[in-house]
Predict the structure of Pyridoxal phosphate homeostasis protein.
Amino acid sequence: MAVNGLADRLASVRASIADVARDAGRDPNELTTIVVTKFQPASLVAQLAHLGVRDVGENRHQEGQAKAAELAPLGLRWHFVGQLQSKKAKQVREYASVIHSVDRPALVDALRSDEASVDCFVQVNLTDDPARGGVPPSELEALVTHVADTPGLRLLGLMAVAPLGEPARPAFAQVRVLSERILRIVPEARNLSMGMSHDFREAILEGATHLRIGSAITGNRPDAG
Ligand SMILES: *Cc1c(COP(=O)(O)O)cnc(C)c1O
């Protein structure tokens, strides 16, 4: 029952993504769907892998590190999507293929490496609340320049979370506009990580390339915080 529920939800979300992409005149294959598995047991991540999921997301270092180690034989790509403390940065680099939450100069410095390169997004804060994570739009270009000048980081683009209690589409449109500004600094950084369970349709319409979808696929989180 639980497994079939998971397969059904995954199929249904994938079908919606493909429908919306086609309605928007976009190729569904250009979208990467990351299933956010925070608070879910490693066994559920393994089920997702058997259903063909390759990209999974976590927002807490200890949980992500433990699951990535346990499930290493599955060859999944781990995306780190949560707020990241600078002192944990080096450890997250070891298992994450992509870090979506680069949001301040100290974290950029902590992620520096002369040996290996990690893909990353700069997260933009679309609210006035610093606790939500992300760089304020006024400081975006300076931070992107800092990333571009730092060895070991390959910038894919911008990440954002739509503000609570506001329509998502204008927020995502704002990210798309900000993205045009950073392309002058890093021309390859044209990806947009935006869109969650309740707003992935709006995100696709505004050009999202990386969707971060949790509960619509996994079901309710056991310990939703
Ligand atoms: C939890 C989380 C998601 C997924 O949220 P859902 O509403 O469950 O789809 C996406 N992005 C980030 C940063 C998250 O923390």
Remarks:
- The chain has a mean pLDDT of 96.
- The first strand starts at residue 32 and ends at 36.
- Residues 103 and 159 are 10 Å apart (CA to CA).
- Residues 3-218 form a domain with the TIM Barrel fold (CATH 3.20.20.10).
